[in-house]
Amino acid sequence: MAASGSGGSRADNGYGSQQPRRRKGPGALATAYLVIYNVVMTAGWLVIAVGLVRAYLAKGSYHSLYYSIEKPLKFFQTGALLEVGLLLITKYLPGIVPSSVVLTAFQVMSRVFLTWAVTHSVKEVQTEDSVLLFVVAWTITEIIRYSFYTFSLLNHLPYLIKWARYTLFIVLYPMGVSGELLTIYAALPFVRQSGLYSISLPNKYNFSFDYYTFLILVMISYIPIFPQLYFHMLHQRRKVLSHTEEHKKSE
């Protein structure tokens, strides 16, 4: 979501060679809306982080901390659904470079799915340590990410936040994915036993659905998709940080 300008050389756009127009930044209203959204999301994940720390200090244990942040986690993680819509909007706003819609959509939808369809729906897994694993990873990641977007929109991005955005994911992404997969795996026996969300034949719609099998397919889907997301971020890290270092040297 950082602002970008166009080059100064002539280019053939298919209608003849001409000087490309300089891209203008997003309008004041669009910028204000995006800044407010990202500030609110940053604040929300900070609330979750503080809640985790306070619960840990009060209990003296990291076990079952999920209950201390359950409500804000559900609210702000579900609020991330707006981000997919915002990406589609900002894709057509001049001056804004959006993230990958497909990769972001998968990341957001998988987290919302895990929040509601797994952790909320299968109460037995809420005490699993794997839940804390992905909650901590999500919390740190989102505080950094939404701060990054906020400062980028304000054209005042501190290098520390940029560095954290394109570096800490190296540990946080595998940590979060491990927690997500372990939580789904822990939910499988309870889903199978209860028949949660499953539809069996015969019925008037002549349709069956096995939620247990669906969860296994969800776990398998991580195999092709997670590496794409991870290597996309590695590529972005090399591109962004190397460009920053070159810019520093030229000054």
TrEMBL record:
PANTHER family, A to Z: VERY-LONG-CHAIN (3R)-3-HYDROXYACYL-COA DEHYDRATASE, VERY-LONG-CHAIN (3R)-3-HYDROXYACYL-COA DEHYDRATASE 2
Chain's role: Catalyzes the third of the four reactions of the long-chain fatty acids elongation cycle. This endoplasmic reticulum-bound enzymatic process, allows the addition of two carbons to the chain of long- and very long-chain fatty acids/VLCFAs per cycle. This enzyme catalyzes the dehydration of the 3-hydroxyacyl-CoA intermediate into trans-2,3-enoyl-CoA, within each cycle of fatty acid elongation. Thereby, it participates to the production of VLCFAs of different chain lengths that are involved in multiple biological processes as precursors of membrane lipids and lipid mediators.
Membrane topology, record value: Multi-pass membrane protein
Domain of life the protein comes from: Eukaryota
Any single biological process term in GO: fatty acid elongation
Known pathway: Lipid metabolism; fatty acid biosynthesis
GO molecular function, one term: very-long-chain (3R)-3-hydroxyacyl-CoA dehydratase activity
UniProt cross-references to Pfam families, sorted A to Z: PTPLA
GO cellular component: endoplasmic reticulum membrane
Coiled coil location: none
InterPro entries: Tyr_Pase-like_PTPLA
Subcellular localization: Endoplasmic reticulum membrane; Membrane
Family stated for the protein in its record: Belongs to the very long-chain fatty acids dehydratase HACD family.
Keywords of this entry: Endoplasmic reticulum, Fatty acid biosynthesis, Fatty acid metabolism, Lipid biosynthesis, Lipid metabolism, Lyase, Membrane, Transmembrane, Transmembrane helix
Source organism: Podilymbus podiceps (Pied-billed grebe)
Reaction catalyzed: (3R)-hydroxyhexadecanoyl-CoA = (2E)-hexadecenoyl-CoA + H2O; a very-long-chain (3R)-3-hydroxyacyl-CoA = a very-long-chain (2E)-enoyl-CoA + H2O
Enzyme class (EC, first level): lyase
Protein name per its UniProtKB record: Very-long-chain (3R)-3-hydroxyacyl-CoA dehydratase
Region (Disordered): 1-24
Annotated EC: 4.2.1.134
Gene: Hacd2
Transmembrane segments: 31-55, 166-191, 211-231
